[in-house]
Amino acid sequence: MDTLLPLLDRHLPALVLAGIVIAGGYAWPRFLSYLRYCKIPVLNTKYDGPPENFLFHSAKVYEEGYRTRRNDVHRIIAPDGEHVVIPNRYLDELRERPDDEVDVLTAFMKVMENDYIHLFPCHHNTHIANSVVKKELTRSLAKINPALSRAVAETVASEMPAECDSGWTPVNINAVLLRMVAIISGHVFVGPELCRRPEYLDAAVNFTTDITMAVPIVKRWTKLIRPLAKYFEPQLAKVQAHRARMRDFLAPVIAERKAKKARGDTMPEDTLQWMLDKTEAEGITDATELTNMQLLLTMAAIHTTTLTTTFILHDMVARPDVVEACRQEIKHVLAASGDDGSMSTHALFNMKLVDSVMRESQRMNPPFLDSFRRYTLKPVTLRDGTFIPAGCLIEAANKAVLMDPDIYPDPATFDPYRFVRLRTNADAPDPLAYKNREQYQFVSVTKENMSFGFGRHACPGRFFAANEIKLILANLLLNYDLRLAAAGEGGLAKDVVLGSGVGPDPSRVILFRKARARA
């Protein structure tokens, strides 16, 4: 003690200064947050406290906000900070704001802790990846669809358990679909020669899972010391390992393609090649940058498509009449189209009951409770004088809108014919009075259904995803019988809601068997 006191006395000013810096680093962001948000009403003080209080009660929070404050700007306190919820009536105005005022990418970077996870490349490179999907991929759908149709048929046949050939077999369809979608999407993302390679499938299947687990781990670290998390959290190392393995996988592929192009060979038509062409034109040649763009595309496409298809099959199998009605529609459309073993984009468009079931399933099981995530880079004053400060993460309710009886009559009832009726029957009452009833298609984005987002930043890959889902459903329904498993056999579903995310019960099984001859 005698030696300790002089030591403390000598270094006391430095220790006090260090304490002030640490306390200030902790308190200053909270003070700024208070100044920014104090005039916006807060909704969920009763859920304050440990993060799990919000994570497990988030659906009630969003429902309460929509029920009590749907016409007013309000805020929700989430584990990662304040979220400002914007009424739907402002979305048409906000979607027209330029990105240097209200930015979608900054919002996702902050939500996904991009400074530490490094999911998103820089803004410019992310926009290149989005552009490839929005332009080259979407414009090529009719051209690539015959090959995609064959790829789906081959993949469904190879990935469904062989035991289904001999009788009813319990199948964890979410797990099977995850690998299926990775392979099928890979046909278009990296080409048929590479899409079944273990290195690709490991990243396609596991990268998103590991990212999803890493984000809340990072958020547990206070912002002042968050940069240190990478040195102590093994989950962050797993994410970086995925990135390194994917780069090792893609680097020789990229080099080979560049050599082929230099020789004047015919080049593949897939997103990797389109991305190579665009990045080359932009002077981007680093394989690491291309790897990050490819991983972003993989994450955005594969898991969301899997979850959506899983939900659709769960909703279908609980209603045998819907399974049979969709099966008959598919047969009728294919017979009328005259397609020789493949399903054209025109045939897929004409599967309107299937499309209606898909949209109804997504209405009841949206991937997120919220949508229209944006970050205000500048203060925003709306036309009616409503003020949103700079530095706010803004969003709009999604699931609560989809369950609004004024918009969707009898919303708690799964109505497989809801949207096909609105699209094909001019006498069917349209509560939203859309100018064009094709806005009730699965791929359409409106303020009343924002599962794919809203505005110019709506999901660019939704057209490809819709085709892929329809092809998978058609192949399963034509080639397999399916039925609900008993409760004790994993047949009862309990959806997983964690924060704003919604997913199907990952343990639920469906009984499948190879289709028998039907009269």
UniProtKB/TrEMBL annotation:
* UniProt xrefs under Pfam families: p450 (PF00067)
* Cofactor dependence: heme
Q: Which SUPFAM superfamilies match?
A: Cytochrome P450 (SSF48264)
Q: Does the keyword Cell inner membrane apply?
A: no
Name the chain's protein.
Answer: Ent-kaurene oxidase
What the record says about family reads:
Belongs to the cytochrome P450 family.
Show the stretches that span the lipid bilayer: 12-29
Q: Which UniProt keywords apply?
A: Heme, Iron, Membrane, Metal-binding, Monooxygenase, Oxidoreductase, Transmembrane, Transmembrane helix
- The domain of life is Eukaryota
List the signal peptide residues. none
